[in-house]
Amino acid sequence: MINLGLQNACDEAIYQLGLDMEELEEMEEDAGLGNGGLGRLAACFLDSMATLGLAAYGYGIRYEYGIFNQKIRDGWQVEEADDWLRHGNPWEKARPEYMLPVHFYGRVEDSKWVDTQVLKMKMMMMIMITCTMRDKYL
User: Fold this and answer.
1) Are residues 128 and 63 in the same domain?
2) Is the same domain home to 99 and 60?
3) Helix (H) or strand (E) holding 21
4) Rounded to two decimals, what is the model's pTM?
5) Which GO terms describe its cellular component (predicted)?
6) Which residues have C-beta within 8 Å of that of residue 31, sequence separation ≥ 6?
7) Do both 48 and 24 map to the same domain?
8) Residue 74: which region, alpha, beta or left (left: phi > 0; alpha: psi -120 to 50)?
9) 20-35 exposure pattern, b = at least 16 Cβ within 10 A, e = fewer
10) pLDDT digits (tens, 9 = 90+) for 39-90
11) Which one of 18, 43, 66, 99 has the fewest CB atoms closer than 10 angstroms to its CB?
12) Coil, helix or strand for 135?
């Protein structure tokens, strides 16, 4: 909404429907992404580019499940899948025309890798990073 300049119009429409924008925002699933070393570094680069007003593309790996949800049961840590895509993701568009095989692990038979393939599909996801003036000077 911010990216398209529709924030105020959407806020007003939501209000007229008797809904609260902040409550709706709280309902949206959040992927546990960008918390690892390289993911955090990539997020910092994107944040810096947004702060400087630089247009850019970012490439990453989109996992079906995020990091994980941690629960404590009977004094033990239990990990559960972070099923952040169970309701789909309205901010992404699948691009099956760019489906490609990705080879990994496996073994060699007759000088060829076998049992090594998964298919990857390009997914376009709009991400809008905003910062306040205070953030620019930290």
Assistant:
1) yes
2) yes
3) helix 21-27
4) 0.44
5) cytoplasm
6) 66, 82, 84
7) no
8) left
9) eeeeeeeeeeeebbbe
10) 778 778 878 888 888 877 777 666 666 667 778 899 998 887 777 778 877 8
11) 18
12) helix
